[in-house]
Design goal:
- Helix content is about 65%, strand content about 10%.
- The chain has a five-stranded mixed β-sheet, covered by helices on one side.
- It is rod-shaped and about 200 Å long.
- α1 runs antiparallel to α2, α1 packs parallel to α3 and α2 runs antiparallel to α3.
- By secondary structure, it is α+β, with helices and mostly antiparallel strands.
Length: about 325
């Protein structure tokens, strides 16, 4: 194989003459050495391989040319010196090709080193990119979950707000209905007539003291009053400033039938005594409390409670209205 500097030359015989086959052989040997070196360079880099192939192609072209020259040399030996000069010119071209191949090998070595470094960097970048991709995917998943949680929370808040607004509207409606029912209850209680008693005998169109009536509270025209004489009058009018009430011009006698020998001859004192004997005053008061006053509440209260509940009120509001009405009613004791 040629030395590292590739100083190619033909070696003539001892007589200074080289035969055509010898030229061909030496040329092939030189070209084969160049091809072997080019093949070795191609193992280090694809680029060097490409340049080496190009150099080999040039050498093969030179070989072909040398073959042609060999044919001419065989045909005319006298032109060997001229052929040698031509081959020497080829040698210069080959040396140039070899030099270029060496440069290509060096460049390919650098390229391989750079490629290896780039591959290492690319591997590190790929690893980092994969880690970043995994982190980005995790962040995306967390963001999607956070979005779903936020949307669910927003939906729950909107539902709660809607429910609160509905409850507030219902509460307002119930409060209004309760206030209306309470007003109607107070109005009904105020307009309902009551039976009252007084511990004295009553006379037609007489004026009595309101403070003597039982029970007290909301005394008005239209109420009935029963005296100790068993007569039941209607209150015609009430003078609150004077604290008096005016009785009606007619009455109903509630005195039970009592058989006397001289019934028409009983005096007022005797009649009062008779009523006292049969406990008339207490009986009339008990009757009014048992059969009249109590039945007014029994009749009106269920109707009012039903109206309150139908208009959105609650049982607690009904109980509060009852307690309020009871606290505002003066004691009858």
């Amino acid at each position: 194989m040629a030395d590292s500097k590739f100083q190619f030359h033909y070696t003539p015989t001892g007589t200074g003459v080289i035969s055509g086959p010898e030229v061909l052989q030496q040329t092939e040997d030189a070209i084969n050495d160049v091809g072997a070196y080019a093949d070795q360079a191609s193992d280090n880099s694809e680029e060097a391989l490409s340049i080496a192939k190009e150099a080999r192609q040039t050498a093969q072209t030179a070989n072909s040319t040398s073959s042609n020259a060999l044919a001419e040399a065989n045909a005319a030996n006298e032109k060997v010196e001229t052929l040698k000069q031509v081959v020497d010119d080829w040698d210069a071209d080959i040396q140039t090709a070899i030099a270029q191949s060496k440069s290509a090998v060096d460049a390919s070595t650098v390229a391989v080193t750079t490629a290896n470094s780039a591959q290492t960097s690319a591997s590190a970048a790929q690893t980092a990119a994969q880690g970043s991709a995994a982190s980005a995917q995790t962040a995306a998943n967390n963001a999607a979950q956070s979005l779903q949680t936020a949307q669910a929370a927003q939906q729950a808040a909107e539902t709660a707000q809607s429910n609160a607004e509905t409850a507030q509207t219902a509460a307002t409606t119930a409060q209004t209905a309760a206030q209306t029912a309470e007003a109607k209850a107070l109005e009904a209680a105020a307009s309902a007539y009551a039976v009252r008693v007084i511990n004295q005998a009553l006379q037609v169109s007489a004026t009595i003291q309101i403070s003597d009536l039982k029970p007290q509270g909301n005394i008005k025209a239209g109420d009935t009053v029963v005296g100790t004489d068993g007569r039941m009058f209607t209150i015609a009018s009430v003078d609150t400033s004077a604290g008096t009430a005016l009785l009606s011009a007619d009455y109903t006698d509630l005195t039970p039938s009592v058989s006397y020998e001289a019934a028409q001859a009983l005096t007022e004192t005797q009649q009062t005594t008779a009523r006292s004997n049969i406990n008339f005053t207490a009986g009339a008061e008990s009757w009014a409390e048992t059969y009249f006053n109590g039945h007014v509440d029994d009749y009106l209260c269920p109707i009012l409670e039903e109206l309150i509940l139908e208009n959105g009120g609650t049982q607690q509001e009904i109980d509060d209205a009852k307690n309020s009405a009871e606290s505002e009613t003066p004691s009858t004791n």
